[in-house]
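worker-3 :: picked Putative deoxyribonuclease YjjV
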Amino acid sequence: MTNTAKPRLFDTHCHLDFEPFQPDVRWHWQQACDASVSRLLIPSVGISNWGAVQELTTIAPQQLYYALGFHPYFLNTDCPEMSCSERMAFLEERLAISDENCVAIGECGLDAIVDVSPALQEAILIAQLSIAQHAGLPIILHSRKTQSRLLQLIKRHKFTRGGVLHAFSGSEQQAQAFIQLGFKIGIGGVITYPRAAKTRRTVARLPLESLVLETDAPDMPLCGLQGQANHPKYLPLVLQTLAQLKTCDVTDIAAHLWLNSHQVFGIDAD
Ligand SMILES: [Zn+2]
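worker-3 :: tokens ->
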């Protein structure tokens, strides 16, 4: 028997504070709600937007969550004059006064494409791993051509809180290695592109218990929607593609993803 009720969805990675959603962010959030997105996590990129992401969650405190951290891509533009230890002092201070809607550290990670020194990226990441470990928080990981190095660092620094490997694309072996370390795999619009054959095959084989959905809006537009800002209202299209790849019923798969998303961030799935 197929359940006809619309499944509730959790967009685990959406930059709702970014320019395309301003100034009428409430209207955009309502559009997402109308498309069955019932919960959404807003990751931050650095000191410059921590206040904004926290403030946004007050629009719908039972539905919107946030993460605090330093994104590798923005290290040259977000308070570049600060040393690593100064940045971490700010993060610890901010965490101490954050509310219960702050459920992760991130987004953080390593980016091999951006013009930011790898040594600085690693120092900032390692320091965030330590803060997350002590705070008992999961991390949201950004990776561009850096998955093996991320795995090495997570193991070497004995980070055990898990989190989400965001915007996954890659091999089954690497995905499994992250799953072994307690990570969920963030599945986004990339799987809607037929040319992403390797990632689609990998995702089809990964256990449902290890997956969460995300849009990364306004980035990562879906296939057929290139050239416009991505939006959390498109999350059901990612779900549909995932259900096709896994030959599963959409409602069943959505129920698993809903639970996985709450579990990884320690939120009650009511
Ligand atoms: Zn992001």
